[in-house]
């Protein structure tokens, strides 16, 4: 049986690393795309790591040439790329606004256009937004707005992909709450972190696996009737 190819953009973040561990490499071939690997191409078993900045046109061309050279057919795609600029109305700059939207949404749209012809006949795509795209949060004017745009983009893509009768492309979104990891441990253990925790009805922060489990469900055939939806994973943060 031919292995199915999974592209993970933003593969070396905490969710991406957890997600990688959950694929059976006997059945799936992973193409992990991030800026963190040391070499532009690293191969490991049925995993390939590509050091790329998807906002960079030359890096996009490299990805396309790699997919062509390796004769890759894309079956699954997960978009975890995003930057979180901590600005409000009074502090936001043109530069930070444009960089946030370029990274969090524009690059994704136009990258999809460039790699579309590599799509298999059946494809599942999951984008990862944020609870900040669902409810407001202080100092997230560009980030929250860009994630709200990503949530709505998911809906539009789901309808637009119907124009291609030769493919069945399922696209959905996941919006996580605060995910515990090494980089935010100090914050979440601080007074500010306890304030966030007290706002969550179930008094729990997420772990990476909580998000990965939902992504895997949305990639699987078990979710075939779910189209253009945003699944909020937040222990109830956004419901009150």
Provide an overview of this structure.
Keywords: Oxidoreductase. InterPro entries: NAD(P)-bd_dom_sf (IPR036291), Sc_DH/Rdtase_CS (IPR020904), SDR_fam (IPR002347). Belongs to the short-chain dehydrogenases/reductases (SDR) family. The chain has a single domain, classed as NAD(P)-binding Rossmann-like Domain (Rossmann fold), CATH 3.40.50. It is built from 7 helices and 8 strands. The protein has helices at residues 14-20, 57-69, 94-115, 141-160, 185-188, 191-199, 208-219, and strands at residues 4-9, 28-34, 41-44, 47-51, 74-79, 119-128, 168-176, 230-233. The chain has an 8-stranded mixed sheet with strand order 3-4-2-1-5-6-7-8, with helices on both faces. Helix 3 links the parallel strand 5 (74-79) and strand 6 (119-128). Helix 1 crosses helix 7.
Low-confidence stretches: none
Count of folded domains: 1
User: What does the largest sheet look like?
Assistant: 8 strands, mixed
Task: Enter the CATH topology name.
Answer: Rossmann fold
CATH class: Alpha Beta
Percent range for helical residues? 25-40%
Strand segment tally: 8
State the assembly state of the protein chains.
single chain
Describe the strand arrangement of the main beta sheet, using strand numbers.
3-4-2-1-5-6-7-8
Mean pLDDT: 95
Question: What are the key terms here?
Answer:
240 residues, alpha/beta, Rossmann fold, 8-stranded mixed beta sheet, 7 helices
């Amino acid at each position: 049986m031919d292995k199915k190819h999974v592209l993970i953009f933003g593969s070396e973040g905490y969710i991406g690393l957890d997600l990688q561990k959950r694929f059976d490499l006997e059945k799936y071939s992973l193409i992990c795309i991030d800026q963190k690997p040391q070499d532009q191409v690293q191969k490991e078993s049925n995993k390939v790591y590509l050091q790329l900045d998807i906002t960079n046109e030359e890096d996009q061309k490299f990805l396309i040439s790699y997919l062509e050279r390796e004769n890759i057919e894309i079956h699954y795609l997960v978009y975890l790329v995003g930057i979180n600029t901590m600005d409000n109305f009074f502090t936001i700059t043109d530069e930070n606004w444009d960089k946030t939207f370029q990274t969090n949404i524009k690059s994704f749209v136009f990258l999809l256009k460039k790699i579309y012809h590599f799509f298999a006949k059946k494809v599942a795509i999951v984008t990862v937004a944020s609870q900040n795209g669902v409810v407001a949060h202080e100092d997230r004017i560009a980030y929250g707005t860009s994630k709200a745009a990503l949530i709505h983009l998911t809906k539009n893509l789901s309808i637009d992909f119907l124009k291609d009768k030769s493919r069945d492309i399922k696209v959905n979104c996941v919006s996580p709450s605060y995910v515990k990891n090494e980089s935010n441990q100090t914050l979440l253990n601080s007074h500010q972190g306890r304030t966030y925790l007290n706002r969550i009805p179930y008094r729990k922060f997420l772990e990476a696996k909580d998000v990965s489990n939902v992504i895997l469900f949305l990639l699987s055939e078990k979710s075939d009737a779910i189209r253009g939806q945003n699944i909020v994973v937040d222990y109830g943060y956004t419901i009150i």
